[in-house]
Amino acid sequence: MKLPTVPSHDERENLFWMDMLRAITIIGVIVIHVTADVITEWGAVPKSWWWAANLYDSLVRGCVPIFVMISGALLLPKTESLGSFFTKRFQRIAIPFIAWTLLYLLWKKYFRAPDLGIAEALRLAASGEVHFHLWFLYVLVGLYLVTPVFRILTAHATSRDLFYFLTLWFLVSSLLPFAETLGKLFTHTAFHLKLPVEPAEGFIGYFVLGYFLRQYATEKSLNKAWALWTLSLLVCAVGTYVLCRHFHTYQNLLYDNMAPNVVIYTASFFLLIKFAGPAFEKNLAPDLKSFILSISKASFGIYLIHPMILEALAKGRWGFVLKATMPHPAMTIPLTTATIFVLSFLAVLLIQKIPLLKKIV
């Protein structure tokens, strides 16, 4: 397979498509969290409810990996000193990491675990168990720690070198674990292929993939991206239904961030926005473009705060209840998602205007 060689992008490159990607992706993250209460209740909710949640969820699979890809695409091409890089990352990640860990510990103590003590709080923080969505911050910290090294590698690697790395990553982090899990489900065997390739495991692949697709992908791949995106979407939705029906219980194998269909979905969607974004921008009203840029800028804060609003609505803490199961998910998933998004967005805009707090979002 012959890979194109494309010169490095200069600083004048229009990156509005990445702002579009962030805006779309953060809404997708909320959809995933809203649908979770329905999808996991296979057999306990009507089939039409489950299918509605499954379709919505399948449509936005890969949202968190896309955030990782955006980070890789933006950070790996840059050149800066270690001191400069870590100073910027500390302000961007470490401060929100500490602040929101503390906030969610207080949230847990006030609403869920009034007996939560300091020792247990420290254990939860150290193990990444404070809240279900904060695991992403731990991933980001790890990726940033190795970014200076991967900058050197990507700067000197050819497109073929990077393609080899990504192929290896896809094999050991996606295909083999997927096959192993699938085998266990259907044959009930404990077959395990031991092939440790630690530098090519986990989210580092998505990190490098974002850089690779930004740097080397051309519009010739657009038709393939459409086909792969559609196919992976169908595999996720229909495949999850087939697995759940066969085993009579909820199966999340095809929802996993490292599942082959999710990797393909994520990469193809990244390409679709990369190539469709510039054309879309030309026909965009200035006010709408400004709105999308505002969402992009607030996306990190929205990610951090939205579970609080989701839980408050689901538990009726503001005097009314709004969640995916009432009355029908086909209607209430979009409504709940929109409500959580708007409230989260407004909250982040407010926090951004407060000098002492704006660094946490």
Note the beta-strand portion. under 5%
Poorly predicted runs: 1-11
Terminal Cα separation, in Å? 43 Å
Radius of gyration: 21 Å
Helix content: over 70%
Q: Give the count of helical stretches.
A: 12
Q: Main β-sheet: number of strands, strand sense, barrel status?
A: none
Element order, helices and strands?
A: HHHHHHHHHHHH
Q: Based on CA inertia axes, which overall geometry fits? A: globular
Care to describe what's here?
The chain has 361 residues and is mostly helical. It has a domain at 61-283. Helix content is 71%, strand content 0%. It has 12 helices and no strands. The protein has helices at 16-39, 47-59, 63-75, 82-111, 118-127, 135-156, 159-187, 204-216, 222-247, 260-282, 286-315, 329-352. The longest helix has 30 residues, at 82-111. Mean pLDDT is 91; it is low at 1-11.
Short summary:
The protein has 361 residues and is mostly helical. The chain contains 12 helices and no strands.
Which keywords apply here?
12 helices, disordered N terminus, 361 residues, mainly alpha
Give the topology:
Layout lengths: L15 H24 L7 H13 L3 H13 L6 H30 L6 H10 L7 H22 L2 H29 L16 H13 L5 H26 L12 H23 L3 H30 L13 H24 L9
Helix pairs in contact: 1-2, 1-3, 1-10, 1-11, 1-12, 2-9, 3-8, 3-10, 4-6, 7-8, 8-10, 9-10, 11-12
